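dumping this here before i forget
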Amino acid sequence: MDIVREEIKAFGQKLPKLVAGCSLTSEPLWGDDTGRESMAGKYSGTFVGWFPKIKLPFGSTTINEMNTIKNLIERPIVSLTYPLDRDYKGIKAGKGYTEQFYGTAITAEFDNYKGKYKPFEIELVAVERRLYD
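structure:
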């Protein structure tokens, strides 16, 4: 589901240079005992749950903008507020919901000629699984 980039915040702060294409999906997570049986070819194991995954594309950024983004995202746990894709825990779809995500390292190429970082994208996975009513 595409989400409105203007409504995404990290620790209550808007992220600079977010561009169109921000999306929210749910990713399945399987337990350590999961795998494919060699004889039957059947894939089986323990299903842990669905974990929200958010994709955030950024446009070209200045050094100052990149420093702001890194200060907000390059942490062990990132607190993101974003509009929900469907009703959850008494909050209506489209309303802001704050959730914890695992942080990530940002890798972006610097363009010496333009003096800016080239566009890049990050993906964050939620710490807790979704338990829908």
